[in-house]
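Dear support,

Our group has been running a series of protein-ligand predictions, and this particular one with adenosine-5'-diphosphate is the one our PI (initials K.S.) wants archived with full inputs and outputs. We had some confusion internally about which version of the output was final, so please treat the block below as the authoritative record. The input we submitted was:
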Amino acid sequence: MRPDLLNPLFAEVTVLKGVGPAMAKPLERLKLSRVVDVAFHLPTGWIDRCPRDELDMADAGRVIAIQLTAVDYKSSAGRGPTRAHAVDAKGNYVSLVYFGGHSGWVKKLLPLGEPRFVSGKLELYGQELQIVHPDIVVPPEEASTVGGREAIYPQAEGINSKRLAAFAAQAIERAPDLPEWIEPSLKAKHGWPGWREALANIHADPADEKARARLAYDEVFANQLALLLVRGEARSKRGRTLVGDGRLRDRLDLPYSPTGAQSRSIGEIEGDMAQNRPMLRLLQGDVGSGKTLVATMALLIAVEGGAQGALLAPTEILARQHYETLSRTLTGIATVAILTGRDKGRVRESTLMGLADGSIDILIGTHAIFQDSVTYKALGLVVVDEQHRFGVAQRMLLQAKAAVPPHLLVMTATPIPRTLTLAQYGEMDVSRLDEMPPGRQPIETRVLSEERLAEVVEALGRHLEGGGQAYWVCPLVEESETSDMAAAEMRAETLRRRFGDAAVALVHGRMKPLEKDAEMARFSEARAGVLVATTVIEVGVDVPNATLIVIEHADRFGLAQLHQLRGRVGRGGGKSVCLLLRGGTLSETSRARLALMRESNDGFRIAEEDLRLRGSGELLGTRQSGEMTFRLAAPEMLGELLPPANSDARLLVDRDGGLSGERGQAARVALYLFERDAAVGLLRSG
Ligand code: ADP
Ligand code: MG
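Confirmed final output from the archive:
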């Protein structure tokens, strides 16, 4: 249960004065549903309202605050603006311009002959001064409330900074004093204020770096503590000691030898699985670095050790592909089965039976493999491929909940920069595939304007004639699956007209699963030369003969995602080409981003730059999964805040694992404040 102390913060936002039905929509847009959300909706900057006695052309461009008196109005016909002409104390003119054609409302706001205190941005319009939509118009008695620094908040239609500031002030008033969870020496070293004071300070002065840093630290600390607790819980249970004797792995007939990085990672995994504590390991490897082989070896170790293994894929397509690859490579070595939401009836029944009686060694599938109806005889290892579609908490709890927790290997191609690994995964051990299989040639990337589409189609024609295959990716144009699909269908249609129906395969998210499989098969068996796809091919699909990829609207993708897509080619020995089509007009940032894609094939470098240019949400894929990592800690603060938060959380858990001492209790409050409740749940039961 959340401590009562926090109740005022978790009350509905409607308890604040001034939050009526009209505010519901705007607040919803900003995702401010509770008082705490308002308190944590931090200002991003401020405006200085310069107090003035007199209008002055030299102030054009500044936000001023001044006493004015309306002398006449001019409304244009129709929907034109209403202008109120006003004078200062010396008789200098300014027009106050209101768009939207409500002259009656303007006349009420600025009655003729009555002084009003007005603030807004002064502009020069020809030779005249004007203020368009003054931010503030109040009677002279209230002049003292205007002027000086005023916080600016991220806004939405129907709610301005002033309202948000007023709501924040009420939220702060309701905020309780909270016990201190920060280690005293750390707090002293940075000169950080207490929690409530920090909250008040940051709303009063958005430039207060100490207040901002403290609040961000709190959030990162809660995150690190939660991850540690979940891990501790998983680790406190005895796992299955799985020692492989190599009898199955030795029978693998590989057309190549593993890279040094693959061998090293397999060794690390083998070492973990031989322990009686469950493994929690992240395998990071750029696209094409050969994660599948590592997963296969890990699964075989589990089987050699007398247990079963499961491989969890994020999509049906990937599950099928893994199934095909693994059942091929493991023929006569281990029994492999597949289970997805699509499998029903008798086939499903027999798979379930095989899992329960142990006749199936390795199961591949989507999240259907963890439904309650699925029971394993002895599940010893779970491999999660391309984890970023799954939630962190879900993943870790999966392990924490099992009676005998299986070893867990999470594989990701998202090249997360080092500073973020800790935030996203906490205390997982990390293996890196930092070496590509030999013979890979870097992918040549070119950026072209969409106007050159015809040339691109011609180039595709030559590529197909030479026996090559190609991907053609149509991204999400708007935030809807329908338009995504429409774009792909339209492109497939034009390509079919040019190259014939048989040459073009098409997959998109709205397709029936069987249809999708059939189209994928046409492409992977080289019956179709080009695969037109939405971003469903983003992860994992492997067709080495496809050495050309065309990506439309490349400027709308995150770089990490572009890199993933590009990684579909460059898998065979031949030279691969990636053509990025961009829109006609590009921002400076978009230009820089695409240039980086052209220059670099290094996933880590791209990820670091993308982080700098776009922020962490995109990179971590939190936008897709709807999982929010941080709201107070900006990505650029993490490098500095994570290490102390991590070591402080660790120290606390070492000293007081049950969080029952004074600081432990305070830290519990922090966990609730940042809604890391799942972790507290573990504490209670433990
Ligand atoms: P990813 O890490 O993106 O999942 P894959 O496991 O799909 O990469 O491997 C990409 C390609 O590289 C596959 O075609 C695979 O057969 C090949 N491959 C993997 N390991 C090696 C190796 N050591 N030497 C040569 N080719 C390899
Ligand atoms: Mg893969």
